[in-house]
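Troubleshooting log. The previous structure file for this entry was overwritten by mistake, so regenerating from the original sequence record. Sequence copied from the archived sheet and checked twice against the printout by T.R.
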Amino acid sequence: MPPASPWLPLPFEWSPSADVLRETLDGGQAFRWHAQTGGTWCGHWGKHVVAISADSAARLQWRSLDPSAPTRSADVATYFATDRDWPRLADTLPWRSDAHLARCLAAFPGLRLLRQPFGETLLGFLCSATKQIPQIKQMLGLLATHHGDPTGDGAAALPTWSQLAEIDEAVLRTCQLGFRARYIKATALFLAAHPGWLEATEHAPYPEAKARLCSLPGVGEKVADCVLLFGAGQLEAFPVDTWIIKAMTRHYGLDGWTPAQVAHFGRQHFGPAAGFAQQFLFAWERAHGPR
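Regenerated output below.
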């Protein structure tokens, strides 16, 4: 096998701490990054296989790990959503009047949202129901190993939705999907029968895109908001899971509110970049909130 590409500086300005890098890559946005020795991270998205590490001066660098289909700097820039000014967006959040949000922003300076392939994001969050991050990563790893196309680093990409449509539900269950296999199979068959549906949904306005996603088997409001936030860059999306319920109950007095009510409050209180604020709240709650 030819050697991996040489290390290159990131094609954008970003100097996160090791903790913020971990939270960005492995904190619940994406499920295909794995920590290696020496502080290096290896990640897959689409056909891309990339390593990220810090050099001797603690500056982040990256390299492509698939010699047969090398990733370009432009691909890395797209994945890390460099079309957005994340520091400016953080400053637009209401941290000046919200002490808890200010504390969350200070705890994770430089945190950013990824822009992942939309179809892969849907698959990842269909696997997420009642599961924690390590379990979701395991399910997706098994799907890639058994049903995805090989990549040049010896691993495999996730199967496409058209590939999933050809796999029996019973076979999908062998990837530890459980009841999620039914939803994934049904979604795959729907997408096979509706070419272009995913692309249209990705680029639709937030309310329409969310309604479309919620019409899919196994997709509720939380999964739809995760897919739109992390796969379509819809910052209006405000996913509400158990961590956010805890945070909003403890710090915003929303005891007894339904997830839909909490999401509405989040969009109203945090503004157009509510989903970005959500990620800071989520990170802080997992790291510092009472268990």
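The chain has a mean pLDDT of 95. Archived copy saved in two places this time.
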